[in-house]
Design goal:
Layout lengths: L1 E2 L1 E12 L4 E10 L7 E5 L6 E9 L7 E7 L2 E7 L2 E7 L2 H11 L7 H27 L7 E3 L3 E4 L29 H9 L3 E5 L2 E2 L4 E2 L41 H8 L12 H7 L12 E7 H12 L6 E9 L5 E8 L3 E5 L1 H7 L10 E6 L10 E7 L7 E2 H9 L4 H8 L4 E4 L2
Parallel strand pairs: 10-17, 13-20
Antiparallel strand pairs: 1-8, 2-3, 2-4, 2-5, 4-7, 5-6, 7-8, 9-10, 11-12, 11-21, 14-19, 15-16, 16-17, 18-19
Helix pairs in contact: 1-2, 2-3, 2-9, 5-8
């Protein structure tokens, strides 16, 4: 959390890095107050906690809002980029207790919560290692690659330098002990303590998201061009749906897939299961498997300029250049009256065409004309599939698997082929 001032409340007895002892007190720290970092540590870690007010969650997504959140562990405040930044310092297992209650509902099935505990622990440890690797080779790590057609950009770990992971959807949701409310969460963590998934003796970079749309994506099509054998194409069903060619890198196959309703674990409207896997604000999103967005000519021009700095005049067409194995667009050509540009990867496309983010980059484009075929389209209709980047575990699909009696091991094996479960501490 970063802001010009941060209001917080210490519940219980704390000691600050200046030696001051504080008990049950509310404070506000602003830029004018701080030069050096300030740390508040609970004297009784099991019972002491602190609250942060006006925490923004779902930042730049369609469910963005503010919450008051409560945390265990230490509170660190420091100045960064002209703002006060608040960081929570705590043990890994306490962090995971929150994550699996924040990413999922605390009332989810135990097998699903166990699977999520394993992948969230794996992801965290992999990110800490990756940060160390990036720091050692900082001059070699690039996430923006310009070319003659346009550019390729992806978003990952490079954004965080003074802490391991952020608390929002950019990394994985961490909302303190605010939503930890069920014995299933504690059971899931206890049952999987120290367990991760590994491949070739390394902890897996285990990614996850809300809904794959029927087929999962490969890592290299979303982030840096590195192949991970456990983050590959998975059909989210126990059988291949009949009547479809699932090579969605081909435009005609992707179009048929996206415009239809193939069976998949994540193709569900089961309100009971969805209420278990989705937190309250996530349940506001009902059309996650197949969705539609309409943009007028004025809206698309404005979005492209504000969100991506792109000005090609009136937009004439949006042309798929390259699709991944799930049908998600990796590169998109934007043709206008004054220029043409090709952009990617998937999140850059989603950001450029939405006030928040498109649900996914697995979409096809239909245009609408009013005057004549020579005029720029007056409206663009994006018809899409899935919610999120599509790499790794599909949370809604995994929830259905858990509800249908599949075990934690079954879920992990389905979404992470070529990975093995291993206890490392």
């Amino acid at each position: 959390m970063s802001a010009e001032s941060i209001r917080f409340k210490l519940n219980g007895r704390f000691v600050s890095s200046t030696g001051e002892e504080i008990a049950d007190e509310e404070r506000t720290v602003s830029l004018a107050d701080r030069k050096a970092p300030l740390v508040f540590e609970p004297l009784d870690p099991d019972n002491g906690n602190f609250e942060l007010f006006h925490v923004v969650i779902g930042m730049k997504f369609h469910w963005e809002r503010e919450e008051t959140q409560r945390f265990k562990g230490k509170l660190k405040l420091f100045v960064e980029n002209g703002l006060i930044t608040a960081v929570n310092i705590l043990p890994i297992e306490d962090y995971l207790l929150s994550v699996i209650s924040s990413e999922m509902s605390a009332t989810s099935s135990v097998e699903l919560l166990k699977a999520h505990a394993v992948i969230s622990r794996s992801w965290l440890l992999a990110q800490i290692q990756k940060s160390r690797d990036v720091a050692r080779h900082v001059s070699e790590y690039k996430t923006f690659i310009p070319n003659e057609e346009g550019y390729i950009k992806w978003y990952d770990r490079e954004d965080h330098t003074h802490f391991d992971v952020c608390a929002d959807d950019h990394c994985q949701r961490y909302q303190g002990i605010t939503k930890v409310s069920s014995k299933q969460v504690y059971e899931a963590l206890k049952a999987t303590a120290g367990e991760v998934i590994t491949c070739n003796n390394a902890v897996c970079d285990a990614r996850f998201y809300k809904c794959c749309g029927g087929i999962t994506e490969t890592f290299e099509n979303v982030w840096e061009p590195v192949h991970h054998p456990y983050l590959t194409k998975v059909i989210d069903n126990d059988v291949v749906p009949e009547g479809y060619n699932t090579d969605l890198t081909k435009e005609e196959n992707a179009r048929k897939w996206i415009l239809s309703n193939p069976p998949a674990y994540c193709n569900t409207h089961d309100k009971e299961v969805l209420s278990q896997v989705l937190n309250d604000y996530d349940q506001e999103t009902q059309d996650f498997y197949r969705w539609e967005v309409k943009l007028t000519q004025a809206e698309i021009k404005d979005l492209l300029f504000r969100k991506a700095g792109i000005d090609v005049g009136d937009v004439l067409d949006l042309i798929p250049v390259e699709r991944g194995v799930s049908g998600r667009l990796i590169r998109l050509k934007i043709v206008g009256t004054t220029g043409t540009i090709v952009i990617g990867k998937e999140l850059e496309i989603r950001k450029a065409l939405s006030e928040s983010h498109l649900y996914s980059s697995a979409f096809i484009v239909e245009t609408r004309l009013i005057a004549s075929l020579q005029s720029p389209p007056t409206e663009f209709i994006l018809k899409g599939a899935g919610w999120g980047h599509g790499v790794g575990l599909c949370q809604i699909g995994a929830a259905i698997m858990g509800a249908n009696g599949y075990s934690c091991q079954d879920i992990l094996t389905h979404y992470f082929p070529n990975a093995e479960l291993r206890k490392i501490y």
